[in-house]
Amino acid sequence: MLVPALIRDDLRGVDDEALTLSVIENKHRRDAHARDYVEAARQLSLMPLPQAVKERHARALGLSAAELTAADKASKLDDKNLSAAVAYDFDLVELADFQEVAHINNARSRLEAAKIRDRNDGAGTRGHWAHALQCLKDEAAEKAKRVQLKQDLAVAGVTLVDWDWRWHETPMRPLKDLVTPLGTAITAHQHARCPGHATTLNPFKPTVTWLCTDWRACQHKLSREASESAAPDAAEMAEKRRRTIRYNAAWRQACSVRQEFIANLCTRPGDATDEVWKFTLSAITGTSAMYSQYIARHRTDLISAFLKIKDPNHDSEPWRRVEDPFGSLIARTGATGRWRLLFAQVAAVYEHQAMSDQAWRNPISKDTTNWLAFLQRQKYSLSDIEAEVLDTARERSSRSAA
Fold first, then answer.
1. Cα separation of 321 and 303, whole Å?
2. Model pTM?
């Protein structure tokens, strides 16, 4: 929990010991402001001190080393967002995360909800927070891309219109639905001379869709596929497509959080748990085609990512791989740490073979559900779509067994 503190002006520029003592002395002042505490931590984090000294000061202030490192970024929050976040008990790491996405609508409330879910889980992790943060980061990146696209279109003098799912009820149509009088496809370059030339932004991803604002007046024709899409079930098909787009985005979003968790799991100190050993050895000694197919690819990128090392084959052609890519790592790894290399390989197999972009769709693979269930037992917080996939598979299995 953050405790506001006051920093005296006469201490600015003094050494780290004096700064730390100043914060501790003022730690319980009622008239202190959260800004003062964050600023003091920021100053301390930026001092050219040995890491061990910084960690000692952090402990004296009741902070972790990670919080001290995060203080500089957290200090960039404006007073309104800082005060509101501190009121919900955001620590410095969480404040730094919030600072990255504070400009996104409802960012704080979404992070607050994730924090509550993590607390209710009782696992002592930030799993739901990680998923919520990744979602907000993706939204921020998409927002930036949309702004840039709009600027580029404005500079090019291209008309930008609103997206409409029911094109068949308007004079407008995407170019992919149109053909020339001779029946050939129309490209954006060819259509640029048309008075109806315009574009719109896809509501689900920051890409442009070129269209004609009045295809009949401009003497275009509908393609056969577009004519058929005006059938009574077109609305239902459009809704299925929208759902697919949403689920694809959510599944990819969960991937980065899940793989970060796997990397942290692979680099935990000490020996593996009994369950991790059993899962790893079963995968390696089993007869699964999934395992043999992945090994035949001779890939090392995912394994390296999970071990948090540079990929030995990062600049090698697919047909010219390093013969013993992890030999040096194996040589310097002690007996209690060798499980990490084996588990990283097994994790790479599951992530590549069982967690592809299409893995959430029916029929859901048993390998997919086994992997998600295993990770959940390791205290990984499933994203909403991962939980839905696992629940759907379990319900189907229960009905089959009944």
1. 14
2. 0.81
